[in-house]
Amino acid sequence: MNRQALRDAVARYNSEGVAGLYDRPLPGRLATAHSERRLQL
Asked: What is the pLDDT of residues 4-33, one digit of tens each?
């Protein structure tokens, strides 16, 4: 873990408590049905 990631985690913990440490959805495009189906094949 680098220093910036640790600082970010501590800041989220201080503002939101333990809930701030859980993973959050990443920004970006959502997977389409076509790409999800390709993964299943």
From this structure: 999 999 999 999 999 988 887 777 777 666
